[in-house]
Amino acid sequence: MSAYTVFFRKENVKILVEKGTTLLDAEIQAGIQPDAPCGGQGKCGKCLVRLEVPGETARLVKACCTPVEQDLCVETLGENRKLRILTEGFQTEVVFSPSIRKELVTLPPRKHQKKLSEWERLQLALAEPVPPRQQMVRRLSELKTGGGCELAVVRRRDRILDLYLSSEPGRRLLGAAFDIGTTTIAAYLLDLETGEELASGSAVNPQVSFGADVIQRSNHALTNGEEELTQCVRREADSLLGQLCERAGVSRFDVYQISMVGNSCMHHLFLGFSPDSMVHAPYQPAVREGLILPAGECGFTAALSAELFFLPLIAGFVGADTIGGLLATGLGQETSLSLLIDIGTNGELVIGNKERRIACSTAAGPALEGAKISCGMRGTQGAVEHVDLEDGGLRCQVIGGGPAQGICGSGLIDGIAALLKLGAMDESGKLCGDGKVDGSEVYWLIRPEQGQKGVFLSQKDIREVQLAKGAIAAGIHLLAEAMGVSLNQIDRVYLAGAFGTYLNPESACAIGLIPRECKEKLIPVGNAAGEGAKRVLLQAGAWEDAAKLADKTEFLELASLPQFQDAFVDELEFPDEEGAGK
């Protein structure tokens, strides 16, 4: 088959691809991580590039729809802006008692008259039987272990993870926690001897090049296999680990434990499981239990016997990230009634206390993260993040303070709430615009003047938000109904994730995304999923607690409820001014 060269001018990268390869796939192969919320279906228009062909005028094309038929020069559009990724979480008191520890032991001298193996000498020093493992027996045999030799033994219960001479300088006992989100990855490096957080960092999940939501990525995996999706996210997570270790001035080979959370789809794709069982009825995961795996086999360069703990799932679309949130907030230990809301590309909800909990998943879609919105973008420099009414007009707050390039989720909710207050939109969502774009009526939040691109909301944008907020609000009401309680009986509402942290509660209640009964009870808890992952490393027993939470939390399948469709339709409308203000 013929092959052609594609040169990406801005990145100064040149690659050879087979004839017919799309420019989007060429970008992925070049490691550029293009933005393709629709998964390369040609619908979103976010993958535009400038194509330069010898003898022709440069033109803008959709990368996903443009096959490579000759040598090409391509200029990707937009600046490389740093995405604002939330790593801070809800801080609650944790009794530092890690399951891993380092013991210093002195091996007894060898005695010719006794048939003692080297491993038996080690067990005598530890004063308890420890099952031999091939790696550790080999490690022990490599060490100079004469009489009186002092060894450092790194162990978790009866499992030895490392052996080395105590005189070896600079050795540490480290752990790392990861939250693998649909859009972003958050990571934390921890000292497991002191409990100190040494560094934290984040990155965009490279799987965004295959689609903004879990359905698109699942479909890609079913069509093309999951290997590509698995390897790219593993490489990014391992790269993040290296960056954190370098920043903290420690060795990645002293990382012995890695804890990980993620939604059910991210769980499957990271571990290399097919998502087939989750995209076909009855929508069950391949495995629900928590897994302890060799970290090296999951793409991490760390200590030789480093272990990876992936927290358990509750159900097909209520994943380990929700278990992390329950651990972090303590909802499973409370006597009073609480509601946990985690709104991202998918929405997960849990209501309950230590006696009983019910969870559900809502198909919020990626609109609240800026996808499928005309001027939508992620929360990065240039995104409108807040919209306020000021002197009868609109005032927009832009991340970074420069010219607006688009609007992210929190700004979207503010913008729609502002249109309601201005009377530019009625309760049904019908827009009364103040301009037109491509023949369609729009309302300008920022007009395209003075060098600014301009930001607007269209009727289609409003409908996308209605679908998302209708699903979430219906889920909240039906969860309370299943629990047999009213919304007024809920004492606390934990808002998890980046969207919940940056969300304006006034706006969320004004548009009916969150019921007005919850308005005064909202507690932003940041990246609670990441905090839960950290807790597994910092507190012995948290791993077992996670298993109990997953096992004892009921799952409500909203789509199977006869009343779901009616509740969803009811919640599509926006509250009137009187209802919103209560």
Quick summary of this structure?
The chain has 582 residues and is an alpha/beta fold. It is built from 16 helices and 26 strands.
CATH topological fold name of the largest domain: Nucleotidyltransferase, domain 5
The major beta sheet can be summarized as:
6 strands, mixed
Based on CA atoms alone, the radius of gyration comes out at 26 Å
**Secondary structure tally, helices:** 16
Poorly predicted parts: none
Explain the overall architecture.
This protein is α/β, with parallel strands linked by helices. It has five domains: 3-76, Ubiquitin-like (UB roll); 100-165, no CATH class; 174-310, Domain of unknown function (DUF4445) (Nucleotidyltransferase, domain 5, 2-Layer Sandwich); 331-366 and 465-572, ATPase, nucleotide binding domain (Nucleotidyltransferase, domain 5); 381-456, no CATH class. A six-stranded mixed β-sheet has the order 11-10-9-12-14-13, with helices on both faces. Helix 8 packs across helix 13, helix 8 (320-329) crosses helix 14 (542-552) and helix 10 (459-483) packs across helix 15 (564-572).
